Amino acid sequence: MRESTVEKLYIFIIMFFISLIMRLQVPIFTPFAAILGASSILIGIILSVTSFTNLIGNLLSGPLIDRLGKKVFITIPIFTSGIIFFAHGLASNAVDLLLLHALNGFALAFLIPAVLALLSGYATNSHQQGKNIAMNGILTTFASIIGPLIGGNLVELIGYQYTYYVIGTAMILTGVFATQYLREHQEIMKHSKQKNVNLLNLITIPKLAVIYLVGFAVMYNHGVIIYEIPYLTVEKGLSTAATGQLFSFMGIGTFLTLSLFFINRFDPMKRLMIGLFGMSISIFILVALPNIALPIPLFTIGLFSGLIMPAMATAITENVTNDAYGKAFGVMSAVYSLGIIASSFITGISRDFISPYFIAFIIGMSVLTVLGLVKLRAPIQAQAT
């Protein structure tokens, strides 16, 4: 039991540092791309292409993780990403940045599904599953609070080039730690009523399909925020430190919700509905009240995001067998990437004509309507049988 706890702790440590390192670049990528000559449309294309390569990797990762094990698909992507991040500092134009960002998206596509699949093995029931995911979320969210602050201030101290050198080196050191301490683990969570599924099943099973649809809407909203907030650095002359602080408010909201472990006792589908509704309303506030202080809606977006993410993972693991975790989380990550692709592309080409926040609100509420209809039909079908 103690050995299992220590092994789980290593996963949490690795995910914390990966999240911290990844968050360092959040407030600096957009202004760095603009400095290298990228227009708003090209920045959207870079983010979209990166998410597309990430999506391809997600779809490839699931079956491979289930077949070949999880550790190899955690350590190799970490080292590869570290090298690519280091190369970001050597980029001389926007095309270099496009290629490097796309390669990094593909490399990291294998990482998150493998980590979630490995972590899911340390649970005997769905409640414990939710606690594991929530604890991981707390640590990675804490990283998302301090990461943008560190990254924004780091740029002002040493510049964009050397900041990317720091990011790349830190990622490689994390890979060394993962190689030394990460262990494969035999899943102990049992599923007595479920049958094994293939990749096509995961997409076509109605209950799983609507869960993935929620994931798409959530990541579309996140994609808009990730695009728009750093762009304030370009449009309004804010410092990277200031934009880093704005992202931290969102992280604080997520951290607060994830800290409430008792929430994991509630039905994950209900948590998805409440979370998506709250996130959509928060996005709409950015449209309806354009002069509102940004920390307020960003905090509430983070608040409801913290409600959604553990519920997503729990809802998925309740509907697949443990030997399909890799595939299930691979599809989930692919759907996340699809949401980022769509939001980056649509935001890049439409922000001069219509508020990207309004489009995100419409998408969120449309998915919420579909989710509500599925929930209403389920009791009717149960009564019919």
Q: Kindly report the average pLDDT value.
A: 79
Shape: globular
The CATH architecture is Up-down Bundle
Extended strand count:
0
Amino-to-carboxy terminus distance: 43 Å
Strand content: under 5%
SSE pattern: HHHHHHHHHHHHHH
Give helix % range.
over 70%
Q: What's the helix count? A: 14
CATH superfamily assignment?
Answer: MFS general substrate transporter like domains
Largest sheet: none
Structural domain tally:
1
CATH topology call? Growth Hormone, Chain: A
What's the Cα radius of gyration? Answer: 20 Å
User: Which runs of at least 5 residues are low in confidence (pLDDT < 50)?
Assistant: 188-195, 380-385
CATH class designation: Mainly Alpha
What class, by secondary structure content? mainly alpha
What's a concise summary of this model?
With 385 residues, this protein is mostly helical. The chain has helices spanning 2-24, 29-35, 40-68, 72-88, 94-108, 111-120, 126-181, 199-204, 206-235, 240-258, 268-288, 295-317, 325-350, 356-384.
Label this structure with key terms.
single chain, mainly alpha, Growth Hormone, Chain: A, 385 residues
What do these coordinates show?
By secondary structure, the protein is mostly helical. It has one domain: Growth Hormone, Chain: A. The protein is built from 14 helices and no strands. The termini are far apart.
Set out the fold topology.
Layout: H1 2-24, H2 29-35, H3 40-68, H4 72-88, H5 94-108, H6 111-120, H7 126-181, H8 199-204, H9 206-235, H10 240-258, H11 268-288, H12 295-317, H13 325-350, H14 356-384
Helix pairs in contact: 1-7, 2-9, 3-5, 3-13, 4-5, 4-6, 4-7, 6-13, 7-10, 7-12, 9-10, 9-11, 9-12, 9-13, 9-14, 10-12, 11-12, 11-14
